[in-house]
Amino acid sequence: MLRRAFSSSGTHLLSLPLCFSSSSHNTFHSKSQNFDSLASFNRMLLMNPLPSIFYFNKLLTSIAKMKHHSTVVSLSHRMDSFGILPDVYSLNILINSFCHMNRVDFAFSVLARILKLGFQPDNVTFTTLIRGLCFEDEIGDALHLFDKMIGEGFQPNVVTYATLMNGLCKVGNTSAAIRLLRSMEQGNCQANVVAYNTIIDSLCKDTQLTEALNLFSEMIAVGISPDVFTYNSLIHGLCNLCEWKHVKTLLKEMVDRKVMPDVVTFTTMVDAFCKVGKITEAHDVVNTMIQRGIEPNVFTYNALMDGYCLQCKTDEAVKVFDMMVNKGCVPNVWSYNILINVYCKMQRIDKAMYLFEEMCRKELIPDVVSYNTLIQGLCHVGRLQDAITVFHEMVSRGQIPDIVTYRIILDSLCKNRHLDEAMNLLKIIEGSNMDPDIQVYNIVIDGMCRAGEVEAARDLFSNLSSKGLHPNVWTYTIMINGLCQRGLLAKAGKLFREMNQNGCSPNDCTYNLIARGFLQNNEILGATQLLEEMRARGFSADVSTTTLLVEMLSNDRLDQSVKQNLSTFLK
User: What is the 3-state secondary structure (H, E, C) of 494-507?
Assistant: First the structure.
C-alpha cells in the first residue's frame, strides 16, 4: 500500500485536497439490524386485533438496548400511522432515543405530546431529558428543568440527582454537584454509592484529593459501602500525585473490606509507575495481577510499552508487544501508535511504515493519531512528498485530518521553502469549517520570515486580531527574529516593547534572539541593554548567544571596553 505509493510518481504538493466536509463523518454506519425484532414488529401489526401497547413497548425496549435508536424512532412513527396509541412508557423510550441521537429538541417535542395526550410525565421522563441536556453540555437548561420538575410537585429520585451531579462534574462544576448532594441529603432522597462515586471521581480528577478522601470517609460513616469504582478513582488520583504510600494503604483497606482490585485498579498503577520512570515497580504490579488470577488487558500492556518508550527502550517495548500477542491479547490501534511513534522519533521510518501496514492488514483502522505520527516522522526526515502521499491515503480511507495534521504539513512546506504551497493550504484551511489556531499562523509567519517575506509576515501578524486571534510569546518571538534577520532593528525593538505593553512577557528565547540580532548588526549598546534586562529577569545566554559573544571577544578590532562589558554576560 504505502510502499507502492511511495515508489510511484510523486504527488504534487498543490494537489492537497479540501476534506473538511462534515458529510465525510457518515462513512461508518451500522448495517446490522435485529431482524427478529423487526419481523416480530411486522407480525404484530398484521394481528387482528392488535396486541396491547405493552408488547410494543417490550419490543421497543429491546431495540433501544441494542442502541438502534433510529430504528426506535422509525417504528414509533409506524405505530402512529397504524393508530396505536402510545403510553408514557413508550413515549419515554422515544425521548431516550432522541437524546441518544443528540436531538434533545425532538425529545422535548415528545414531552409536549405527553402533556397534549393528557398523560403525566414521570421521573423517568424528566431524568432522561436532564441526561440528554447534560450530554450536550446544556447544564443551565438541565438545572432549569430540574427546578421546574420540583416546582411541578415531582420528587426527583436518586437517579435524577446522580444524573445531574454527573453533568455538573463533567463541565467542571464539582462544587455545584456537592451542593446538590447536600440538598439531596436534606430532602427525602438518600444518596447512594453512584452519587458519591460521581463526585469523588471528579474531585480526584481536579486533584482535590483531601476533599475526595473526606467525602469517602463521609460515605462510609453514613453506611454506604464503597465499591471498586470508588477505590479506583481514589487510587488514580493518588497515583497522579505519586502518593505511593497512600496508594498502598488504600489497597490494603480495599482488600480488608472485601472489595477486590480489578484490572482497572492494577492498570492505573502500572500506567502511573511507567509515567514517572518506575518500570520495575510497574512490572511488579503486573506480576501481582497475574498471581491473583487477573489477566492484564490491552491497556495494561500499552501502559507498559509506553513506559519503555519514554525511556527509549524500544526493544523492551517490542518484547511487551510480542508477549501481549502470545498471551492472546489483541493489540489495538493505540498499541501500534505507541511503537510507530517511537520508531518515528528514532528516524526508523521504514519500521514505522511496516507496523502501520501490519495494523491495516489486521483490519485495525488507523486513527488520526496514527496518520499524524507517520506524517510527522516522514516530514522530520525530509520525506515531504511521501508525507503528502500518506495524507492522500488518509483522506481516501475516510479519516478526517485534524488541525494537527495541517500544522505538520504546513510546517514542513515552510521549512522546505514551499511557501506558495503553504499559503495555498492556509487559504484552504481558512475557507473550511476548521478554525486555524495561533500555532497555524506562527508556522506561516515563520515560513514567510525564513523566505525573506518579512513585510508580508508583518501584514499577516497585524491582521491576526481581525481573525479573532491574539499573538502569543512565540508569534512575537518569530516576528522579532524575522525583523532582526533583515536588519530592521528599530522595528524589532519597537515590537519587543509592544509585546510587554500588550501583556505578553518575553521568554528566554525572545531575549536571546533579539540580543543576537542586535549583536550581529553591531548594535552593541542596544544588545548590552537587552542582555542586562534578560539577566535581571532571571534568564541567561543560551548556547548560540554564548558562542556569538565568545567570537566577538576574540575579535581584535572590537574596543577593549566593549569586550570587558560583554564578558560579564559569560559569567
Answer: HHHHHHHHCCCCCC
Look at the block and give the residue holding cell 485498579: 265
Q: Cell 488541525 maps to which residue?
A: 403
Q: What are the mean pLDDT values of the chain's consecutive 10-residue runs (571 residues total)?
A: 43 43 37 65 86 91 91 92 92 95 94 93 94 94 93 91 95 94 87 95 95 96 95 96 94 94 96 94 92 94 94 92 93 96 93 94 94 96 94 92 94 93 92 90 95 94 92 96 94 93 92 93 90 92 91 82 81 68
Do 103 and 71 touch, CB atoms closer than 8 A? Answer: no
What DSSP assignment string belongs to 136-169? TT-HHHHHHHHHHHHHTT----HHHHHHHHHHHH
3-state DSSP helix/strand/coil percent for the chain, to nearest 5? Answer: 70, 0, 30
pTM, whole model, 2 decimals? 0.78
Residue 18 CA to residue 23 CA, distance in Å, equals 13
Q: What CA–CA distance (Å, rounded) separates 107 from 333?
A: 36
Residue 250 in contact with residue 231, Cβ under 8 Å? yes
Query: If 0-12 CB within 10 Å is exposed, 13-18 middle and 19+ buried, where does residue 465 land?
Result: exposed
Element (H, E) at 62: helix 53-65
- For residue 243 the three cell numbers come to 502518593
Three-class SS state of 502: coil
Q: Is 99 exposed, middle or buried (0-12, 13-18, 19+ CB in 10 A)?
A: buried
**CA 82 – CA 61 distance, rounded (Å):** 19
425 in Cβ contact with 16 (< 8 Å)? yes
With cell 458529510, the residue in question is 23
| Cα 296–Cα 298–Cα 301 angle in degrees, nearest 5 | 70
For 444-472, what is the HEC assignment?
Answer: HHHHHHHCCCHHHHHHHHHCHHHHCCCCC
Alpha carbon 133 to chain centroid distance?
22
C-alpha cell at 76: 414509533
Dihedral sign for Cα atoms in the order 129, 131, 136, 140: positive
Q: Collapsing DSSP states into helix, strand and coil, what is residue 8?
A: coil
The set of cell numbers assigned to 521 is 548588526
Residue 495's CB: how many other CB atoms inside 10 A?
20
Cβ-in-10-Å burial (0-12, 13-18, 19+) of 93 comes to buried
